[in-house]
Write a structure and sequence with these properties.
The complex is a heterodimer of chains A (111) and B (113). Helices cover 0% and strands 51% of the residues of chain A. Chain A is built from no helices and eleven strands. Chain B is globular and about 40 Å long. The chains are: A mainly beta (111), B mainly beta (113).
């Protein structure tokens, strides 16, 4: 079991482009959480998803950000028209009955 | 290899007992340290963090942690736990000035009423 896989590890986008971050949960896990980590800060919750459902998106910015977790395939965090302030590390975690596991994160740099 | 080790995977305490959860890390540079808590059915929340200065850090809900550089440790403590502290606790280490963060495997705390 490879654990929670996030890709890409590093992503560079120009202002105005779209960023797509992918998260494949651990085998058997059906819950996915996305967090953002800004420089010198801790994790901040963004969204909690189960397959095909958004359970809690209270931490998501109202505009430009969206997330999905389709029946097949990874969870996707999508940021449209990126701005410099979106530069951060984005972490995904997945959970099942007995474990909660983090991915290694995607570092997004907006230039 | 960089790693974070949480010594206890499961801890069971009675109310009013004192708590100490161990966290040791292996990392070659300067680090920032965090403890997070996840209550049942909820997402992660920040309990406390250490960046620099006083190695004894106070967080929310009566928790504190002490950074001992020579031991590469950042243990979490609470003098008297409550039933509502039942949760999973994660230690995390972040390289200073960067984004790389490594998480421990978590410790599940169950407090008996």
């Amino acid at each position: 079991n490879a654990g929670v896989m996030q890709n890409p590890r590093h992503l560079v986008r120009r202002r105005g482009q779209e960023a797509r971050l992918r998260c494949s949960p651990m085998k058997g896990h059906s819950h996915v959480y996305w967090y953002r980590q800004l420089p010198e800060e801790g994790l901040k919750f963004m969204v909690y998803l189960q397959k095909e459902n958004i359970i809690d998106e209270s931490g998501m910015p109202k505009e430009r950000f969206s997330a999905e977790f389709p029946k097949e395939g990874p969870s996707i965090l999508r940021i449209q028209q990126v701005v410099r302030g979106d530069s951060a590390a984005y972490f995904c975690a997945s959970s099942g009955e007995k474990s909660y596991t983090f991915g290694s994160g995607t570092r997004l740099t907006v230039v | 290899a960089q790693s974070v080790s949480q010594h206890n995977h499961h801890v069971i305490l009675s109310e009013a007992a004192s708590l100490e959860l161990g966290c040791n890390y292996s990392y070659g540079g300067t680090v920032n340290l965090f403890w997070y808590v996840q209550y049942p059915g909820q997402h992660l929340q920040l309990l406390l963090k250490y960046f620099s200065g006083d190695p004894l850090v106070k967080g929310i809900k009566g928790f504190e942690a002490e950074f001992i550089k020579s031991k590469f440790s950042f243990n979490l403590r609470k003098p008297s736990v409550q039933w509502s502290d039942t949760a999973e606790y994660f230690c995390a280490v972040m390289n200073t000035g960067g984004f790389k963060t490594i998480f421990g495997a978590g410790t599940r705390l169950f407090v008996k009423a």
